[in-house]
Amino acid sequence: MSWTTIKLVDQLVKIVEPSRVKFDPSDLDYYGKDWSNAAKPDPSAIVFPISIKEIQGIVSLANKLNFPLVPSGGRTGLSGGALACGREVVVSFDRMNRILNFDEADNLVACEPGVITGDLKKFAESKGLFYPVDFASSGASQLGGNVATNAGGINVLRYGMTRNWVEGMKVVTGAGELLDLNRGLKKNATGFDFRHLFIGSEGTLGFIVELTLELTSQPKDPTVMLLGLQKIENTVKTLTIFKEKLNLTAFEFFSGTAMQKVIEAKALSSPFDHIYPFYTLVEFENDCERQLNVASALYDKCISSGYVVEGVVSQSQRQAENLWKFREGITESIASHNPFKSDVSCRISKIPTFLRKLEKILGGFSPHFEAVLFGHLGDGNIHINLLEPIEMDSQKFQEECKRLSKLIFKLVQSCDGSISAEHGIGLTKRPYLNYSRDDAELNYMRGVKCLFDPKNIMNPGKLVDI
Ligand code: 2HG
Ligand code: ZN
User: Fold this and answer.
1) How many other C-beta atoms are found inside a 10 Å radius of the C-beta of residue 326?
2) What confidence tens digit (pLDDT) does each residue in 356-406 have?
3) Is the pTM of this model over 0.90?
4) What is the pLDDT confidence band of residue 224, given thresholds at 50, 70 and 90?
5) Do residues 185 and 279 lie in contact, with contact meaning Cβ atoms separated by under 8 Å?
6) Is 46 helix (H, G, I), strand (E, B) or coil?
7) pLDDT, position 366
8) pLDDT at 177 exceeding the cut of 70
9) Counting atoms of ligand 1 from 1, which one is nearest the CA of 334?
10) Which of 45, 124, 291, 295 is geometrically suited to a Cys-Cys bond with 131, CB 3.0 to 4.6 A?
């Protein structure tokens, strides 16, 4: 341990019990990184506060001694937002994971930020209700991190992003003040709603220390159709047909390469006799006989128009879950290929142009890169994963991908889209933020950061600095 770390730890243990300050190399490595693996972790210590008071103490110390802090939840982020690679103190919410209170009249639940998303979903179920934000990492991600990144996922089409479900939050700003924002009110016309500044702020303004989230009623009999398609442009045509007459809960798409990788990695059998170039997965609430008839008429229309070649529909909850496995297993199934990830969005109306031009860029740029395309098409959100060829040197691959991402970001910009649909800016996309935000906006962002975190101690180097 260096001399400065010893001094720092001496001070930290005056705020939290010594057993809740860690600095073993294995802890520093484990808590210093997220799923992006974008840089080598190098934090100076990890602290595990158990109360708002302790968090205020840590922030006040950081301001006094001028050391940086990194808020840490489930660290499932893919943009390096929770990476600590510059001697920061990581503030882990693992020990602040209690559900505090359920208000039945308002369907509101107050939670500490370290509650795992899946645990809140189970809690909602136990009350006969539903917390609709869902994604593959919900078994590990924490609510504080979800709010800090405005997490999206597979149900956004019907329920919106995490933002829609935050009715109140307590935050400790970078300056050390405790703010109690919106207090679970549905209506509150008293001026600036700071809650929304903290949602998606990626830990750069302060710590989210308590949340009040809304629950809703459970969906009835979610039914899934998996469709095989020949051409990428038919994915959007299929979406248009289904969206017009059905209230969809999800509309996902993925490429044949994605399907192939999932089948191999998870030892699943293909739902059809052969692999199609593209698939769409349609989910809707099958709450009455009529819905199924409508869905089947829409399916027939897609077949007769030639947009879809064949499809299957789930007959039970179990079958629906099995069909989702092909989509939800993609990230895990390609992880060993060290993929370079991009997560972009644009309006649905611009998606056909976007996809056509993207195919050209990918094909023309480097035909030896295997590209896995998938995403939440119903939200205009495309995930592009480029797999590292075995024969290529890793560093060269990363450099090539960076060149390629600039072309993709230019395309996104020309389509008025976003360079980060749902994974955030973090560390990895920071150099490219200007493709989606202009100079005037970036200046206002810096101004906001300056107001809440004047000494730039909160997650420096991520999203925006002053
Ligand atoms: C998903 O939609 C996640 O499955 C992960 O957002 C996307 O791995 C990715 O690129
Ligand atoms: Zn996604």
Assistant:
1) 22
2) 999 899 887 666 789 999 999 999 999 999 999 998 999 999 999 999 999
3) yes
4) very high
5) no
6) strand
7) 65
8) yes
9) 8
10) 124
Whether 261 is in the pocket of ligand 1, judged by its Cβ within 6 Å, is: no
Pocket perturbation via mutation, ligand 1, pick of 35, 261, 338, 423 by most ligand atoms within 8 A of CB: 423
The one-letter amino acid code at 225 reads M
Ligand 1 contacts CB of residue 341 (under 6 A): yes
- Mutation probe of ligand 1 site: the residue of 261, 330, 386 with most atoms within 8 A of C-beta: 330
Q: How far is the CA of 134 from the centre of ligand 2 (A)?
A: 10
- DSSP three-state, residue 128: coil
273-316 confidence digits (pLDDT tens): 999 999 999 999 988 778 999 999 999 999 999 999 999 999 99
Distance in angstroms (rounded) separating the CA atoms of residues 256 and 307 = 16
CA 323 vs CA 226, 263, 372: distances in Å? 7, 12, 19
Percent of the chain with pLDDT over 90: 92
Q: Is 331 in the pocket of ligand 1 (CB under 6 A)?
A: yes
Q: How many helices (H) and strands (E) would you count in the chain? A: 15, 18
pLDDT band at 4 (very low <50, low <70, confident <90, very high): confident
What pLDDT is recorded for position 465?
Answer: 86
Cα 166 from Cα 319, distance rounded (Å): 32
Residue 399 neighbours by CB under 8 Å, 6+ apart: none
Mean pLDDT computed over every residue of the chain: 95
Residue 254's H or E segment, with its range, is strand 248-255
Nearest CA to ligand 1 atom 8: 331
Residue of the CA atom closest to atom 6 of ligand 1: 153
> Given this model, what pLDDT does residue 5 score?
84
Name, in order, each residue with C-beta under 8 angstroms of 70's C-beta and a sequence gap of 6 or more: 43, 82, 83, 84, 88, 89, 90, 91, 203, 459
Residues 6+ apart with CB under 8 A from 229: 235, 238, 276, 277, 278, 279, 280, 307, 308, 309
Has residue 351 got a pLDDT over 90? yes
Q: How many CB atoms lie within 10 A of CB 162?
A: 26
Q: Sheet with 206-214: list strands edge to edge.
A: 99-103, 108-111, 206-214, 166-173, 178-181
Nearest ligand 1 atom to the CA of 423 is 6
> What is the Å distance from ligand 2's center to 141 Cα?
14
Over residues 195-211, mean pLDDT: 98
Indicate which atom in ligand 1 lies nearest the CA of residue 374.
2
Ligand 1 and 383: CB distance under 6 A = yes
d(CA 108, CA 39): 38
User: What Rg, from alpha-carbon coordinates, does the chain have?
Assistant: 23
